[in-house]
């Protein structure tokens, strides 16, 4: 069967974050703040978005739409249908569920009506035992409305005998394995939860007399909220007007394994993760790369935009001048969502163009965040050589991506990852560049603030897509025949 074209034909060679979640309580017209927050989280998912709000007169109201937040949730006619002081929202890039062809029924937040009142829920991450749970729930009479793994949580809550929605949520989440950062709401409470390993981010902010929960701090800034703290791995916070922020620990203690790729690529560079500036970590990765893989060259260029901070760090450390050798066209967007074959073949040229005047005759170091399939790297190399570069050296700000992610990031199957099939030298020859080097796993850890590098046997982060060391066994995939590293 022919492979489906990617939802965004010019970003098909990147790993894609699945979702961003956001919630606000205790401010008038909370849905407007949620819309702004989701707009700031748009990089985490562009296919669809949704908002649920609650107001005593009209009850729960929801709107779910395909496309960008700015194209939907800026319309007064829509926002007027989402009144109240409490709202949550979600932006989605599909992974679990109807992959690559999101149906509106898969767009979150999801809603459930329970005997003690309704609850809405938005989930970032991926449940690795969702298929087994779904089978069990359907056998016991649950009727699913969507193909999303996240809906399992609503059904597990419905079957719990606990008396309150937060207690039911605790019950449900103890059955769930994998990565989850959840923002949920009842009629009076805003709830935030992170899985025991804290794989995906979630932060708490203060806005006036109210509170906000967000996947990233950059989405607190946009509404003028102040950052209070991160929700801890394995923590549930229940926020209400009467009790403020209450903290619970529903899960057994586990050592944190935050996704290290959030530092490399997913999060916005103006966000703060684990007390560290994402921009500074990325810049430091460039410093590590320059130390680990020096090269004689005339110019350091980022592959925009995500390679930029690492290129600045590489240039600073190596002393090789920095220049914008590749210019990104900021306005290639959904207009080309269904491009003709001819336009698709132009591929990366529509998004990136070479600054010939700077490149011609130079030995160029190109700094990119990752190599996934290698297709984009190859096209960029061709563009740079066409522009008259004397040499092309790739420096990659992450280790080789050789394993798929099962924790909420869209990755090609293992066989399609270039690094799963080839050594570094083979990849260099395949891409046809003068040299290709990746930052080491230890170098990446050092850049992320772990001075001693990766602790063997007890890594401080999830780095499974580089190491094959999965902190939570991907149960559904193993059942389908996926082989862990030890079994290969
Ligand atoms: S496998 Fe990679 S992308 Fe997925 S959570 Fe772990 S580090 Fe992040």
TrEMBL record:
* Active-site residues per Swiss-Prot or TrEMBL entry: 19
Domain of life from the UniProt record: Bacteria
How many cofactors are bound and how? Binds 1 Mg(2+) ion per subunit. Binds 1 [4Fe-4S] cluster per subunit.
Where does the chain bind Mg(2+)?
Answer: 306, 368-369
Keyword set includes Nucleotide-binding:
no
Its pathway, per UniProt, is:
Purine metabolism; IMP biosynthesis via de novo pathway; N(1)-(5-phospho-D-ribosyl)glycinamide from 5-phospho-alpha-D-ribose 1-diphosphate: step 1/2
In terms of InterPro entries, this protein maps to: GATase_2_dom, Ntn_hydrolases_N, PRTase-like, PRTase_dom, PurF, PurF_N
Catalysis performed (reactions): 5-phospho-beta-D-ribosylamine + L-glutamate + diphosphate = 5-phospho-alpha-D-ribose 1-diphosphate + L-glutamine + H2O
Look up the EC number in the record and give it.
Answer: 2.4.2.14
Q: What SUPFAM superfamilies does the annotation carry?
A: N-terminal nucleophile aminohydrolases (Ntn hydrolases) (SSF56235), PRTase-like (SSF53271)
Pfam families associated with the record: GATase_7 (PF13537)
Q: Which UniProt keywords are given for this protein, alphabetically ordered?
A: 4Fe-4S, Glutamine amidotransferase, Glycosyltransferase, Iron, Iron-sulfur, Magnesium, Metal-binding, Purine biosynthesis, Transferase
Residues the record lists as binding [4Fe-4S] cluster: 259, 405, 462, 465
Glutamine amidotransferase type-2 domain boundaries: 19-242
Q: Name any cofactors this protein relies on.
A: Mg(2+); [4Fe-4S] cluster
Q: What is the stated purpose of this protein?
A: Catalyzes the formation of phosphoribosylamine from phosphoribosylpyrophosphate (PRPP) and glutamine.
- Similarity annotation: In the C-terminal section; belongs to the purine/pyrimidine phosphoribosyltransferase family.
User: What is the name attached to this protein's record?
Assistant: Amidophosphoribosyltransferase
Task: Look up and give the organism this protein is from.
Answer: Rhodovulum iodosum
Q: What is the lineage of its organism?
A: Bacteria, Pseudomonadati, Pseudomonadota, Alphaproteobacteria, Rhodobacterales
Task: Tell me the gene name.
Answer: purF
